[in-house]
Amino acid sequence: MIEPIQSDAEIVEDRADTHNFLLTPCSEATFRHFYKDKPVHRGRFGNLVEALAPYGIAADFQTDPL
Q1: In whole angstroms, what is the distance from residue 12 CA to residue 17 CA?
Q2: CA 58 – CA 62 distance, rounded (Å)
Q3: Whole-number pLDDT of residue 22
């Protein structure tokens, strides 16, 4: 029997009207590509990287957030 995969997190609320899963969501790379004339924004992935850094979880071990 195959055991179910345990989730690391649970989405408890979603206030966004629309989601776009075709592009990397709100990442620094996306901002660099589409907004070349604007200051770089680290996006949600950058926020997650910073939040998990104190726990020793490097960016390479994280997936893009929803």
Answers
A1: 15
A2: 7
A3: 59
